[in-house]
Amino acid sequence: MSVLADPREELVTIAAIRRPRGLRGEVVATSLSDYPERFAPGVPVWLRPPRGTARAAVIERAWFHKGNVILKFVGLDHINAVESLAGHQVCVPLSARVIPPPDEFFQDDLIGCRVELESGEVVGTVVDVAPYGGGTLVVERIHPDGRRQECLVPFVRAICTSVDVVAKWIRISPPEGLLD
Fold first, then answer.
1. pTM (2 decimals)?
2. What is the pLDDT of residues 30-63, one digit of tens each?
3. Which of 50, 61, 91, 94 has the fewest CB atoms in 10 Å of its CB?
4. Would you identify the CATH topology of the domain 107-172?
């Protein structure tokens, strides 16, 4: 079992606990990770409530069932021990996050990126990623007159030609009319 990072480090949510399952301390959670190995036995996690302080836990076992992940944590062996976990997030430190393959990005890394044209002209900032067509950037534009406008930019290579999530920018080559 590895040691958890300092709880003050930024946490990344990998699952959301929905409810207890059975009497032996298992919970039903929605997986927010594309990497099932995040739920391997012995993986240390933080259980973060909607309000309050996160607490450390270790995954004892996990399996996928009907689109959910069933989790059992070490030492939480009865329904009474997990009833209060509904609504908690299962988190790992940002430093323990899986590194995605080249040309794949986490949605939360795209949010906050400056969007600019190939010419360098700033279009706006990514405020969300919508699930349309595999991923669409919701870009907030602020016009010179102060008017705000949201526009949708498909997150595809033909349009989003360069992405640097570390420097927080996305360069686009939009087809005519996309930003109107």
1. 0.66
2. 998 888 888 999 999 999 999 888 999 999 999 9
3. 50
4. SH3 type barrels. (2.30.30)
